[in-house]
Specification:
It is built from 2 helices and 14 strands, in the order H-E-E-E-E-E-E-E-E-E-E-E-E-E-E-H. It has a 6-stranded antiparallel β-sheet, with no helix packed on it. Strands 4, 6, 7, 8 and 10 form a 5-stranded antiparallel β-sheet that branches. The protein starts with a helix and ends with a helix. With 303 residues, the protein is mainly β.
Length: 303
């Protein structure tokens, strides 16, 4: 019994969240012909001080490869206030939506994945989303050649005491294409271009009521032709005649090379000449010798 009641409660909560409490009289979109990267602002008038629901939706056909499909949106910014993100896949077996939120300095929260099994080829996931910047990956299985995805970003804003309200949405992470903006049951279609175009807009605001909208076909803005700068023709200077420089080789006279090993000449021994000894004469020595000789002779004679 409880298992049967839970799906009913879930559906009731979803339907209750989509209830519009304020009556919207009209709204306009600026810029009317946005390009990717523009911040689209929705202006309108509703019941004073009442909450207004704003849906921005687009569709994307994704090819199926090897039984699976993948579509990712990076750096999608969810503004302040109450928000909801809904993905519906047509032609799938199941649907998975994985998301992570940027914290600070390039750090992200862990991936969180919600999964649904398809019924008759259709699966849908709807989840309230806190403000922040998210990376979202939509993936799943399919036995078809392609899967059509419908992605809806829902925001809620309160009108002021005069009934005026405005809601801004950054288109930087969104792919170029056609988007449907729904405010209080009134729908308008805008085309998000890859580049800026110039248009001759006949009205200051979009048309209102019944989901109709007059879409002005954007006329491509011609690329401005830059004014050519006329540069004076420079007369080429004559190349200077090169005067050949005669290089006179400097002849360095060869130095006499001294052999490393000088032969040692052995001189022929010269016989030593006998140098007579010089007699050293002592004064009176000869007389003394003579006297001694005389005395010796006299003594020998007496004997």
């Amino acid at each position: 019994m409880m298992k049967q009641i839970l799906p009913i409660i879930f559906i009731f909560l979803i339907l209750g969240a989509t209830t519009v409490s304020a009556k919207v009289l009209d709204f306009s979109i600026r810029p009317e012909h946005p390009a990717r990267g523009d911040v689209v602002t929705i202006y309108g008038t509703a019941t004073p001080k009442e909450e207004v629901r704003i849906d921005i939706s687009f569709e994307k056909v994704v090819s199926v490869e090897n039984g699976g499909f993948v579509f990712s949106i990076d750096k999608i910014k969810i503004p302040e206030g109450k928000n909801r993100f809904t993905v519906t896949a047509y032609g799938c077996v199941d649907l998975d939506v994985s998301a992570r939120r940027l914290i600070i300095g390039g750090l992200y929260t862990p991936w969180i994945t919600l999964s649904r099994t398809a019924t008759n080829g259709v699966a849908s996931i709807s989840q309230s989303v806190p403000p922040g910047t998210y990376d979202v990956i939509i993936h799943g299985k399919s036995n078809q050649s392609s899967v059509k995805l419908k992605i809806v970003a829902t925001g809620y804003i309160k009108a002021d005491e005069t009934g005026k309200f405005s809601y801004s949405y950054d288109t930087s992470p969104l792919p170029p294409g056609t988007f449907v903006v729904s405010v209080g049951g009134i729908e308008k279609t805008i085309t998000l271009s890859a580049y800026h175009y110039s248009t001759s807009e006949s009205s200051s605001g979009g048309s209102s009521g019944g989901g109709s909208s007059s879409v002005v076909t954007p006329t491509p803005t011609p690329t401005p032709t830059p004014t050519p700068t006329i540069k004076p023709t420079a007369t080429p200077a004559k190349a200077p005649t090169a005067t050949p420089t005669v290089i006179t080789p400097t002849v360095t006279p060869h130095k006499n090379v001294t052999p490393k090993h000088t032969p040692t000449l052995t001189p022929t021994p010269t016989p030593n000449k006998l140098t007579p000894k010089t007699s050293i004469k002592i004064p009176g020595f000869d007389s003394l010798i003579a006297m001694l000789s005389l005395i010796l002779a006299i003594r020998i004679w007496r004997e």
